[in-house]
Amino acid sequence: MAAELGASRLLAPYFSSSQIVWTIIIGTIMIALALGAVFGGRWADRDPDPDKLYLRIMAAAVWISLIPLVGKFVILLVSGLLIVTVSTNFLVIAAFVSCMLVFVPPLFLLGTVTAGLNKFATDSLDDNASVVGRLSACNTVGSILGTFLPTFVTIPAAGTFVTFLLFSGALLAIPLVYFVSMRARRVACAVSAVVFAVSAVLSPMTGFAFWENRTTLAYEGESIYNYLQVKNLSDRTILSTNVLFGVQSVTMKDEGLTGMYYDTALAAPALADHARSALILGMGTGTYARQLRRYYPKMSVTGVEIDRKITDLAVRYFDEPDDVPVSTYDGRAWLAASRERYDVIMVDAYQDITIPFQMSSDEFFTMVRAHLNPGGVMVVNMNMISDGEGSINEALQTTIANVFDGACRIGTTYTADVPGTTNRELFAKAPTRAELARYDGCSDSWRRTGEIATVSEPIGSSMRSDVRADALRAATWERTADGELAAYMSGVGGRMTAVGDPSNDDGDGSLILTDDHAPVELLGMRAIDQLIAEEAGPYRDILEKEGIGGLLRAVQ
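Given the sequence above, the corresponding structure tokens read:
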């Protein structure tokens, strides 16, 4: 279990910690253990020599001790080869091949142990069941320790690399004690001890992103939830939770507009009927909160961030506003426990290639809408531009539009792509007081979870007029008196695109995400394939035309 949990943390900075990656880790490790049990039983029956059993334990321990030193190089090599050769399912294939190369061999060897121990511990068939029961109990106890210790003790305190070394060291001690007491296999013992010592010394000296310039890498570490990396560049400070696919938060060192999605998201307080309060689900390093405090200084801002370590880094490296309270909580759980309402709610919890399914469903967005004041606006940072039939954005946009339209309105939801990025901001407006007064017996409660239910003559949302470039610019100027921001909002208005109102006639019901059915991991994986195809396409052409030599020259 310790190796399994360590595997998830080793792969997460490169492939995310989605359910897809977890499935691959569990599946490959179970395959390795099953094959080990089969071959271990055969070997024990054929040659019941305990020396060979302890040698297999020693080999597995040494292999695991080398994972923090060598594993990241293997993962990057696999990723580099596949990214220019594989067109679809990159995440699945790369994670699977990495697991097979890095984790299957030692887990296969460990899988042979139980069968061998059963052979050596059984003296008579009369007590064979008792022996098997005790061995199973020991395995279970070991799994319990291997589950709780890495998650709550070693990884948060010392990191993934040290966790591998601690558990491999404990495992290596077993055969070393055995062979030393038997005065056998001295060379194997010495070599194993030396290899372990070398890995223990060198592994902490290199991080997950070992190629990064150490002069700009301000911090690299781990929390219970994430791999964390802070880079301090000349014009910005960056927090990343994944070393291959983008960044989590960015803070520009110059005041004013950032040139990133935070600027587009500032349309939310201009679109809302009032701009007195805001809630940020996925506070990160506080960049959006900082922008709100700058342009809307009278606005009360509250943040929610599930990872306490990110909040600590925000204070240390990103100058997070000290007058913004931040709760360490899951965003949805926080909403469920709160009765407060806000004029603006920012959902910024989608980390590049990992979308929490519980924060993408009909039920979640219904909860967000219920926490908005009349005429309040939700803005969602959708990290990947992936359009077309069957895309993650199509599902999210349809789900949100269906929730905010309810049974009584249409035209509530708009999107604006952020130039030069893979971000798209979605804006959805709750019913205004005037709209609620016009409902005339219509109730949004008529729409059941996951279903589309619109009355024959729905009310057109005020968003249709609010998102026009002139209206957005005027509202921004009226509330901020900032000419630069008002001019930028005029451009945002020009980029606004209406999300189609969901209709049963168009088959949109199948796109709505619910707590029961929200395949966001698979949909997100398609988006990753699209991004890789766009970025790696030219390199694939070079590989086909000029071979490996041409590819190497191109990346130099």
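The chain is about 55% helix and 10% strand. Try to locate this feature in the token string yourself.
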